[in-house]
Amino acid sequence: MNNSFFKSIILVTSIFSVATLLAGCTHSHANTDTHQATDEALTISVLYRDRSMLRPGSELRVTLEDVSKMDVAAEVLSTTVMSIDSAPPYIVSLPYQKNKIKSNMRYNVRAQISNQGQLIYTSTQHYDPFNQVVSGPYSIQVERVHNRTPDVALTNTYWKAMTLGQQAVINQENIKELFLQLREGNNIRGFAGCNNFQGSFEQHDFALTFKQIASTMKMCADSTEQEQKMFHSLNETASYSIKGEHLTLLDKDQTVLATFQAMYF
C-alpha cells in the first residue's frame, strides 16, 4: 500500500512538472511574438522651400518603402496620411513593424502633397532612415511638381499673336488684337493689325503652309510694319510646333517666324 501511495505521488508530481514546463514554453513563445510585432515609429519633418500657400483640402502622404529589389515596384511597409492647412514644416509620426526591417535591405521614405488627386509636391531624393542617425525628426524636402499643360489643337483654337520675327506684338489701343484661327475645312481667318484676312491652309503631321491669303484694303499708318510681318510670317511658314498653349510658326530652315498663345473666351 505504501508503494502504491508513493507511486501515485510521483505520477502526480511528474504530470504537474510537465504541465508547468509546457505552460512556460507557451508563455515564452507568446512574449516573443508580441515583442516582434510591436510597432515603432519614425518622426518625419516635411517641408518645401517656396512660399506657396496650399489650397484647402490638401493632404500629406508619407510612405515607408522597401526598395531593395531592382526593376520591381517598391513594397509599401507603412503609410500615414494627414490633412494640412498651414505652412511647413509638417511633423508626421510614421509607424512600422521593427521585425520587418532587415539590415541587408534598402528602404526609402517618400513624401507627397496633393490636392483633390493632383500631385503638387513630391520628394525627389532617397531617404533611408535606418542608415543615418539623427537627434531629431528625419527631415524630408519636397519639390513642386510642374504639371505639363496638354497640347492645344492646331485647328479651332483662337491664337493670339505674341511675337512676329524677334519682336513682341504691340496691339493698338481701341483696336482688336492680332490673331489667327485655323478652322475645319482648311480655312483660316484672322486680323493682322489693320486688315482682316482669310485664306486656306494645308497641314500634314507638322508640315504647314498657308495659301490664297486675301485681306481687306484699309489703310492704317500705325500698323503697316507689323501687318507686313504678319503676312510675311504666314507666307513663309513651312512647319509648326505646339507646346501646351503656345504655337510656333517656322520657315523651311526651322527659323521662328511668329509665336501665338491660345486664348479662351
From TrEMBL:
Gene3D superfamilies reported for this sequence? 2.40.128.270
| Taxonomic lineage from the root | Bacteria, Pseudomonadati, Pseudomonadota, Gammaproteobacteria, Alteromonadales
> In its UniProt entry, what is this protein called?
DUF306 domain-containing protein
UniProt keyword list: Signal
Question: Span of the secretion signal?
Answer: 1-23
**Residues covered by the DUF306 domain:** 153-261
Q: Which organism is it from?
A: Pseudoalteromonas ulvae
